[in-house]
Amino acid sequence: xxxxxxxxxxxSDEQKLLxxxxxxxVLVLRADGSISSMEQQAVTTLxxxxxxxxxxxxxxxxxxxxxxxxxxxxxxxLDNLTPEEKEALLRALFISSFADxxxxxxxxxxxxxxxxxxxxxxxxxxxxxxxALEEHNRRMKLMRSSAGLIASVVIIGLFVLTxxxxxxxxxxxxxxxxxxxxxxxxxxxxxxxxxxxSFFRLVKTILVKPVVFVxxxxxxxxxxxxxxxxxxxTEEEKLQVAIGRACNATVLSVVLSMVLILTGLGVVTVSVxxxxxxSDQVRTQLLTLTKKVEGVDFLKKDVKKLQTQxxxxxxxxxxxxxVMDRIGSDENTKKSVMxxxxxxxxVVFSVLGSIANFALNTLLAIFFFSFFLGKMAAYHRKQExxxxxxxxxxxxxFETSWLPxxxxxxxRSAAEVINEVCFKLKTWVRGYMWIIIVETVIYIxxxxxxxxxxxxxxxxxxxxxxxxxxxxxxVSAALTLGVCVVTGHADLKLLGMIVGTYVIMNAIVxxxxxxxxxxxEALGLNVLETMIVVLLGGLFxxxxxxxxxxxxxxxxxxIVPRLYQSLRGGDELSLPDETDAAPAPESVQ
Length: 589
Prior knowledge:
Helices cover 77% and strands 0% of the residues. The chain has helices at residues 2-7, 14-30, 37-51, 53-64, 71-76, 83-97, 105-118, 122-144, 147-165, 167-178, 180-192, 195-222, 235-271, 279-293, 300-310, 315-327, 331-383, 389-398, 408-450, 455-463, 471-486, 492-518, 527-568. The radius of gyration is 32 Å and the shape is globular. The two termini are 23 Å apart.
């Protein structure tokens, strides 16, 4: 169906053509009186694969509207389609009507009306109906055999193990997937001697060629025979060289960009840090805050005690002295101090080990990034067509000697499941990354305008709270308020504006604008489900579980119904009884 839209690309009514097609899908989905979640997901996936993600979002918006599309007006807008394109459209509509594994008389009548309005004959209608039914039953038979589902579960299990024990491999694969378009653009530039190729050639001339020249000169002193002249490169060799250079250029670009971003953020953080903290100012502001909350009954006693202490100018010195006196008061405490020193040394060595481990994982992630990027680029060039990540993963794993030989149909079924899983993960990563970027910029800007100390790190932390729904914003807000109090910025108006900023960002901006724009309904989880899975993720896997609970739950919500369908079995789908069918309309030539 993508070819139908591509054939009319560039026309002034291209978007109207696509919208009319989507309205036919809406009519077919509503024909039986109800739209199941699995049926809607199957059809939106079909539309997304054929027309793109924007068309899928448009279809979901149309399904949510109450008014039914006008069949006559919609089909009139499709008159410029060729007969072959109209048959292809009808075939896609049959696939959507079979999506819930149930084909009722109302759906058949709706499709007959659509075929009549499009000018499709009864003979063609019957042929497309039987062909689509045969294909659907074949696919359902394969699904009930669980072969494709088991193959996809094997792949998902391998990636779960990889993510658990070899995080560098997973991060390298993710980076390779996301930066593959950049590598492809670089490859085209190297093949055409474009601007990017000229820039990296200049870098190579300045930094690499002098070293190579010295090495060749030194090795030439000990070489008995002259170095042979290189043979002319073939077109295939030129392509491989361009792919290799593009991979190196992509990895170098990504690494340098990350280093520059982190360095810039560090410089900004250091340059805008607050001046020396005035303890008297902190004490005065804390005293003012306690006077404003002393009217609260259950806090009155503790507030009075704290006020008495804060009224003394040297209260912080006294608190520090009390701590030191308690440390050196007796022999047992001194022994505990020595134990504390040992613990501190243990913590220091643990931190150094963590830093070394982080550095090693970073280097390994860069290595696997380069490795997978080269493999994926070569695979895409070899296929010479629009292939998806699921196809690459399935072919790469099941064409090795580690796994048993599998039929082509099973691999195709597994690739469909993996493609949908990867789409959900891609939507989560891409959507959350954009939300993090937008929220981070907003938080840093607002904190700068309000005069919040350490605005850059606190704003970055606040932007990351989208990864921990409901809990992350509260922790970040408490930390920001605490920093303001400790650094002498405990003005009640400022604290109130900070709390208001968090409320507006998380309750209004994120929920009403950012999340629908960047994530939408792609993950398939409502608010209640999100709250439950985040809490369960934190219960079973801590902080990492809370972060990855949403995409994992979305994947499970997609796979579990298909697993149930494969285990439940059932009869093949059949057409409605012709004796109960309405009289077939006369074919319109």
